[in-house]
Write a structure and sequence with these properties.
Length: about 110
């Protein structure tokens, strides 16, 4: 369950943001997760809630949006949707792709109470 380590890193970042803004409580956190990270949204929400107990983030809602994976073909420049193991360009048939989206975890918002 790699969601636990991701949730731990997320919590560290969220608590740092809250401290920087002198917040006493974190109410909501929003993240975007690329599908290639293979994160189970329910698992990361549960892990975050468990790790947040006793911190300013205890009880905070974690909203997770999954982002699709996209690649750009280095041969023809076509941008297209990809899946975990399929990177073949539908336009030229080459498997020479540069990943554009779908492998990131992005902290979008932290809603705090000061």
């Amino acid at each position: 369950m790699h969601e636990l380590s991701i949730a731990a890193d997320l919590l560290r970042n969220v608590l740092a943001v809250a401290a920087e803004h002198e917040a006493v409580r974190i109410e909501q956190v929003t993240i975007e997760v690329g599908v290639l990270r293979q994160v189970v949204p329910e698992a990361i929400v549960e892990a975050f809630a468990m790790l947040a107990v006793g911190t300013a983030a205890e009880g905070a809602a974690l909203k997770v949006t999954e982002l699709p994976a996209r690649a750009e073909c280095r041969r023809c420049g076509n941008t297209y949707a990809v899946s975990v193991d399929v990177y073949v360009c539908p336009q030229c048939g080459q498997a020479d792709a540069r990943l554009v989206d779908g492998n990131d975890i992005l902290l979008q918002t932290v809603v705090c109470q000061t």
